Amino acid sequence: xxxxxxxxxxxxxxxxxxPPRLSIVIPMLNEAPGIxxxxxxxxxxxxxxxxxIVVDGGSTDNSVVLATPLADRVFACKPGRxxxxxxxxxxxxxxxxxxxxxxxxxxPGDEERAVASIEDALNTHDxxxxxxxxxxxxxxxxxxxxLMNLRSRCTGIxxxxxxxxxxxxxxxxxxxFPDQPLMEDIELSKRLxxxxxxxxxxxxxxxxxxxxxxxxxxxxxxxMWRLRYRxxxxxxxxxxxxxxxxxx
Length: 248
What we know:
CATH class: Alpha Beta
Number of domains: 1
Number of strands: 8
Structural class: alpha/beta
Strand order of the largest sheet: 3-2-1-4-7-6-8-5
Radius of gyration: 17 Å
CATH superfamily: Spore Coat Polysaccharide Biosynthesis Protein SpsA, Chain A
Largest sheet: 8 strands, mixed
Helix content: 40-55%
Oligomer: single chain
């Protein structure tokens, strides 16, 4: 079990240095098979005033060892995606935040363009998200991706897989991610939507379709819609988290 303390991959930040223009916060838990591939494309951004923060939730594999040389800072905290992302945001230095899941990445070669699009969007919006393209074996994933993007545009609600970004002050105003074990992205989106409408970026992030491949596309679609409906009906996130993990 990892100790609950910060792991520094670089020396302490120089207070006299200008702040980064964007902080990318990546929650991680047992992502050793893919974390290097997720972080490697972000390395040119680190040389261009973009901060990469990884927050581990108690990995029992060598995720932290693999991530450390590829991030500006790596932290360890109690498990829970909301806790991890809040922890990373608390230590972020940039005026803009991007929350990127460990299995989500920019289209290859579009990293700098994606960062520029975030900066442009935040000139006129408080927050926003990318369109998503799910990558996996199921032939249904392209259609699922289209429907996810359409649903988001119709409802103003974003999921964490879509790469949610916002101004730092906006994150503070809404109180960050709610400390709940599931639907934290949905709840945060509701708070942000009440504050201001989102920016919808047609530029895409690519997210792993591994849960669709593992459980089956139709089963996963039914499961996620059922959970979202029951959450809308007032069922607690804790109860839904139990059902979700049991189904997985």
